Amino acid sequence: MADGRIIKALSGFYYVQTGDGVYQCKGRGVFRKKKITPLVGDFVTFDIDENDEGYITEVKPRTTELVRPPISNINQAVIVSSATMPDFSTTLLDRFLVLIEAKGIEPIIFITKIDAIEESTLTEIEKYKNEYEQIGYSVELFSAKQPSDLEKIKKYFSNHVSVIAGQSGVGKSSLLNALNPMLLLKTADISKSLGRGKHTTRHVELVEVADGLVADTPGFSALDFDDIELEDLSYCFPEMRERADQCKFRGCMHLKEPKCAVKHSVDLGEIASYRYEHYVSFAEEIQSRKPRY
């Protein structure tokens, strides 16, 4: 019997890392009966037989779990946005933030390619940086081509298990390659006609980056809110969550209700108007989705 963490899943095999090395294991049939699928990130107990083949016998309870990508026990999500190609979008950033907040995972915001923008665009992005920091998020602006910038962001990965999120072409693989040149992940070419990267990453794997583990995955392949209920949406916006108790009505949705502390804070400029507009838009999206049976 030995304990370890699954760092890769590929073709029915699970690669379990222990203090002694990495063991190739299969899952026991009992998992299929119990409908338990071992995930990358799982802490497991496994047996090694006389042929040096490993069999996972137990999957330990998970602290967090993602479906897309299928991974567990992640304690932070690094959202990579780019300042240009593709252009920075608060709408897209807020979609990622809501999805990550809904899973109880801490988000970190990275904005890359700041070496490739005009001064006026940089000023605008710095304004957004300040606004997201006031909400309570950690935000870093940097160029992955600058060694001093890379040193600055290494601290975010140390002693953490991270998943990288962000649309194609923002430079997720380039960033990981720059932090750990041993990885040589396939870097997505920006398709100039489409303005987005070609999908390059296939399986899920935890790789070592800056004294931490990072999931090199296809990332969040779907940015829909299928798993989020309307009454839970405002809790995925920290600045709304902390004001919910001040609303006149319990269970206030911050939409059309009178004496709503959230709407009052928007009027006062304490909550950014674009954040509230995104909340309303996401709420409409959730309300209009087809019921599930």
Automatic annotation (TrEMBL):
Its main location: cytoplasm. The keyword rRNA-binding applies. GO terms for molecular function: GTP binding; GTPase activity; metal ion binding; rRNA binding. GTP binds at T112, K113, I114, D115, G166, Q167, S168, G169, V170, G171, K172, S173, S174. Residues 63-223 form the CP-type G domain. Its cofactor is Zn(2+). GO terms for biological process: ribosomal small subunit biogenesis. It comes from the Bacteria. Binds 1 zinc ion per subunit. Residues 72-221 form the EngC GTPase domain. Zn(2+) binds at C247, C252, H254, C260. The keyword Hydrolase applies. Keywords: Cytoplasm, GTP-binding, Hydrolase, Metal-binding, Nucleotide-binding, Ribosome biogenesis, RNA-binding, rRNA-binding, Zinc. One of several proteins that assist in the late maturation steps of the functional core of the 30S ribosomal subunit. Helps release RbfA from mature subunits. May play a role in the assembly of ribosomal proteins into the subunit. Circularly permuted GTPase that catalyzes slow GTP hydrolysis, GTPase activity is stimulated by the 30S ribosomal subunit. HAMAP family: GTPase_RsgA. NCBIfam families: ribosome small subunit-dependent GTPase A. Monomer. Associates with 30S ribosomal subunit, binds 16S rRNA. PANTHER family: SMALL RIBOSOMAL SUBUNIT BIOGENESIS GTPASE RSGA (PTHR32120), SMALL RIBOSOMAL SUBUNIT BIOGENESIS GTPASE RSGA 1, MITOCHONDRIAL-RELATED (PTHR32120:SF11). This is Small ribosomal subunit biogenesis GTPase RsgA.
